[in-house]
User: What shape does this take?
Amino acid sequence: MSETPLDKLDETEARAELARLSAILAKANDDYHGADAPVLADAEYDHLKRRNAAIENKFPSLKRADSPSDLVGSTPSDGFGKVQHTVRMLSLSNAFDESDVVDFDDSIRRYLGLDQDADLAYTAEPKIDGLSLSLRYENGVLVQAATRGDGGVGENVTANAKTIADIPHCLENAPGIIEIRGEVYMSHADFADLNTRQQGRGGKPFANPRNAAAGSLRQLDAEITRSRPLKFFAYSWGELQKPLATTQHGAIDAMKSLGFQVNPMTKTCANPSEMVEHYQHIEAQRATLGYDIDGVVYKVDDLALQGRLGFRSTTPRWAIAHKFPAELAWTCLEAIDIQVGRTGALSPVARLTPVTVGGVVVSNATLHNEDYIAGRDSFGEEIRDGKDIRVGDWVQVYRAGDVIPKIADVDLSKRANDASPFVFPETCPECGSDALREEGDAVRRCSGGMICPAQAVERLKHFVSRAVFDIDGLGAKQVEQFHQDGWVREPADIFTLEERFSTGIQQLKNREGWGEKSALNLFDAIRQSRAVPLGRLIFSLGIRHVGENASNLLARHYGSWAGFEQAMLAASDFDGPPWEDLLGIDGVGQVMATSLVSAMNQEAEQASIDRLVALLDVQDAKQPNTSDSPVAGKTVVFTGTLEKMTRAEAKARAETLGAKVSGSVSKKTDIVVAGPGAGSKEKKARDLGLTLLDEDGWLELIST
Assistant: This one.
């Protein structure tokens, strides 16, 4: 929804907005921390939380008791015992750009009374995208493991934590009480293996490693957790009987000496410039780390200064998380594959080293066409400053919402010296036919038609899709398998399946995944689908540029399959009355008409279509009852601006009354309806002596 700018909000609007934000963010917290199934994207969550804080700053008296600014995590689940943290587990405030990092350093210096020349060191470490965990040891023995929960009270997951190999059960030379904190996570390789096992059992795959790790740790059955490959990085602490060190980096070394895994990319930095430089260094290696991170955490290195800085209500003053852009990530382009679609289009796909972008693991991205790979748009102008894309490149992947991932940029500084420009194929990788690129078309296409297996399979998938024949029990997966086995090579083969595979040695019921009942149900569904409306049949042919609406338009115009087919064959020379009649249909342009006539006049295509139609009961397009219509059978052209109805409404009304609506004026036109701004069509109508009406005259005519 659109948001009222902050400076435009009055007190009443601000109160309502805070209530709305509180509800949205509370649910998002429960989804993320409680259910391990986030719905709200990280970037949107961060945006809403910043907006909530900004409104509270402007209207401090309106701050709610349940303000998201004061919340950490979510309420612990009833499925686990509760653990009261002796030292609260807080969240971190966020930085989103370099200026925020500079502001963080300035705020620290102001609070401590340090000038800009005073030494002030920070640690910078990867921010692991996992589940926070606190481990309590007494006399060197692990006695309790707890999730963060709401920061004050967490969930007791001790039995589960003990199944994680990275977590030691006993510590040598440890103080009497020591509470180690860190992040439970899952590596990319283990995540992929887990999802493969999940899907093999018919289970739902996890969206990303963070969800998988959190869901695995919070299992009520510890044996399930044991079967999941979880890991743990230590980076902080809670209650301590004696200090680990005097600095943050010293404490990390101490945790390592106790037997914990710590992140090797942690570095001490002298100023914001070094912090940002290390941030960029980590971001550049993000895809090769083997686990997910979503930013870099900066902490004041001196623990005495951390003590002086203390805490706000939910965050420490001495630390901040510099988040990566939620929809962007750098990774390696491992290969470029060419896929062939049902219209023969050769589509390049980038195969990437998997990286999590916007909460989803991305391993593929679209490369559009050969111009895009070469660094040009469809007009020949440079994109990405003219940088081409090569196998082995470091590329920036962009993904927002449900948008298909794309390559946003290329890092030329990391390009190998022997990297070669990608050579786009001029033959189809599936059938070897010439792949041609017509003038004005950004896409190269296979010329093989139905002899190309890729086109055949994709056309069959289109044929059985929901908007076309929609045969119950015969979807994309089944038709692909039937094609692979040689049972279905073209649409007509679907309607002979029963006679070929209902008896004998090769029976459908004997195939894996099929039984007698499911086979009989499929045969019955195929029989029922033989009766098909003309518009749906035209759409089923998968002809380029001819969509569902255009197919129904053609059906209404020609009325029957015989009429449609004869007209297409008669227009084979792209000239003469049949061709002019096709172009005259309002909504049919030169490109669609050419594609339609070309497809219907290819010998192999025509033979395949004839075999299909011979097995169907094609229903003529329903014609409206126009016995009393004054315009039934007449050809009408609308031109200029209509003021009392839209062009679409006028066209639909005319067709309901039995008129044919054309987009061009000719001798066959009966009526031209001209509104303000009508130009050459009105002039031509006058020259030809056609009936010319304004909008009021048209409305009066059709109301009689």
